[in-house]
Specification:
By secondary structure, the chain is α+β, with helices and mostly antiparallel strands. Helices cover about 50% and strands about 15% of the residues. The chain has helices at about 5-10, 20-40, 50-75, 75-85, 85-115, 120-160, 255-260, 275-285, 300-305, 345-355, 360-380, 385-390, 390-400, 410-425, 445-455, 460-465, and strands spanning about 185-190, 200-210, 215-220, 290-295, 310-315, 320, 325, 330, 335, 340-345, 400-405, 425-430, 485-490. The strands form 4 sheets. The protein has a 7-stranded mixed beta sheet with strand order 11-4-1-2-3-12-13, with helices on both faces. Strand 2 and strand 3 (about 215-220) form a beta hairpin. Helix 2 runs antiparallel to helix 5 and helix 5 runs antiparallel to helix 6. It is elongated.
Length: about 500
């Protein structure tokens, strides 16, 4: 007799199981494997009692601790605080990885311990597929969460500053990090830096003034063609420009950044004298102390809108694309954005926000469209879609955005953001030609308008309270142009 035949004859036969027994063992496999998928180690208790109990106990303790943390601070605040802390994110990643591996071990061990002896063919394949799917349900979310945590940590390190600007409003330790600080003012600069341009000329300049107690925010738009720019008494440029930056159309607000760069010798050790002078000029124009700055370039804006999946705008007037003015004539037009409600991609959203060649009042029409764009973006931010597109959004932020808010203060800013979202309104006041005289501005009058916008006098309380409320949908198309008065930012189109 051959060796093969003798081996088969001598091998113990697998016990034959009845149909009922096989069915019972199969159900046991699926139930216990599912149990270990829902609660790590729960399905291991029948076969590995101590290991299963330790895993379940650790899971329950972690769950109770997490719930207690969320309840003590609130879900939104808790998520924001972890999401803006590089230290917390550095801890979170290995916790996620180790936790997922332990959970995965529980699923695999449960499946292995409870796989019926002698099962083969389709039943065995079905059990293996079930166990694999169960493992995927745990590993995939953990891997994605760890990936997002690493991306977020990288964004914080590259976008935000390591030090606080001199004189900036600073949060404090305690239950309310903004106790003692009434307002925080942030300069928002849209930069038109590019290979075909010399230096940086702010294409869009706004200042967001935030009430730290209520979260109410007012956004002020400063026109590019503003003249007679004041400088602070302690500005290094005052010696060369004792009467401010004033020389007619050759000294506009849009040239202030270049002014600083051209006089860099007056700012020894300053890495960005252009930003320093722009920040000082904006402060003097509005009569507000500027605490922090955020800069985004035009390419970044285009990519940001594309990463968001576009933006829906109620276009009020025909806007030319690719156009510019040469010798008083509009040239280079490649197309138009027609009036009506429509979804714009990044390229067309940028031209909608920048185009001024074909507008009746040039820069001022553009300022209205810019605040309309800001309102639309705020109104249409969808947390779910943002999360799905976050890796793409993160790359845009790292490549095109710079913020001088220090990383260590981000948890305090998370509190402020929550106040803006929960109880704050966002209003805007563009300093257009219908509000001020840009060629001969009365800065005392401008400062009064700014103060009234921030803290409306009682006589205008009734009028202010009639402002349009926030809506979750863009307004319907109408022929009335956006107002240049103080208005809710989401109702400016």
């Amino acid at each position: 007799m051959s060796e093969i035949g003798r081996h088969r004859r001598d091998k113990p036969a697998t016990p034959m199981l009845s149909e009922r027994a096989r069915s019972r063992l199969s159900r046991r496999f699926y139930v216990l494997t599912a149990a270990s998928t829902v609660v790590p180690g729960l399905g291991l208790i029948p076969s590995r009692r101590r290991t299963g109990q330790v895993m379940v106990g650790a899971f329950v303790l972690a769950l109770v601790g997490g719930v207690a943390y969320l309840l003590s601070k609130g879900v939104t605040t808790s998520v924001l605080e972890v999401g803006v802390s590089r230290r917390a994110l550095a801890v979170l990643v290995p916790v996620l990885v180790v936790g997922a591996l332990v959970w995965l071990f529980g699923i695999v061990a449960t499946a292995r311990d409870n796989m019926p002896a002698g099962v083969s063919g389709r039943p065995r394949v079905a059990m293996l597929l079930f166990a694999s799917f169960a493992a995927l349900l745990v590993v995939a979310p953990a891997a994605q969460a760890a990936r997002y945590a690493l991306i977020q940590r990288s964004v914080i390190g590259e976008v935000f500053s390591s030090t606080r600007p001199d004189g900036a409003a600073a949060p404090v330790d305690g239950e309310d990090p903004w106790e003692g600080t009434d307002r925080v003012n942030i300069l928002l600069v849209g930069s038109d830096a590019g290979p075909d341009r010399t230096g940086v000329r702010p294409d869009s300049t706004m200042v967001a003034s935030i009430d730290t107690r209520s979260g109410k925010t007012v956004l002020f738009g400063i026109p590019r063609n503003l003249q007679n720019i004041p400088l602070s008494a302690d500005s290094p440029l005052r010696e060369r420009y004792p009467d401010g930056y004033s020389c007619g159309r050759e000294c506009l607000f849009e040239y202030v950044w270049t002014l600083g760069e051209d006089n860099a010798d007056l700012f020894p050790g300053d890495p960005s004298p252009g930003l320093t002078v722009t920040k000082d000029a904006a402060s003097q124009v509005l009569g507000l102390d500027i605490d922090y700055t955020t800069i985004i370039d035009l390419k970044g804006f285009t990519q940001l809108v594309d990463a968001m999946g576009g933006v829906e705008i109620d276009v009020k007037e025909r806007v030319c694309v690719g156009c510019k003015i040469e010798g008083g004539v509009v040239v280079g037009t490649t197309g138009y954005i027609e009036p009506g409600v429509q979804r714009l991609d990044g390229y067309h959203a940028l031209w909608y926000s920048r185009s001024r060649a074909d507008s009746q009042d040039g820069d001022f029409s553009r300022m209205r469209r810019q605040r309309c764009m800001v309102g639309a973006l705020i109104n249409q931010v969808n947390p779910v879609s943002m999360l799905q597109r976050y890796p793409e959004l993160a790359k845009v932020l790292k490549d095109n955005v710079a913020v001088d808010i220090p990383q260590g203060d981000l948890s305090a800013w998370a509190v402020l953001v929550e106040r803006i979202q929960e109880g704050g309104s966002i209003k805007s006041l563009p300093l257009t030609n219908k509000v001020i005289d840009v060629t001969d501005p009365d800065y005392d009058a401008i400062h009064t308008k700014v103060r009234d916008a921030i803290d409306p006098p009682r006589r205008t309380a009734t009028k202010s309270s009639s402002s349009s409320p926030r809506t979750s949908e863009p307004s319907s198309s109408s022929t009335a142009p956006p107002t240049d008065e103080l208005a809710d930012i989401t109702a400016t189109c």
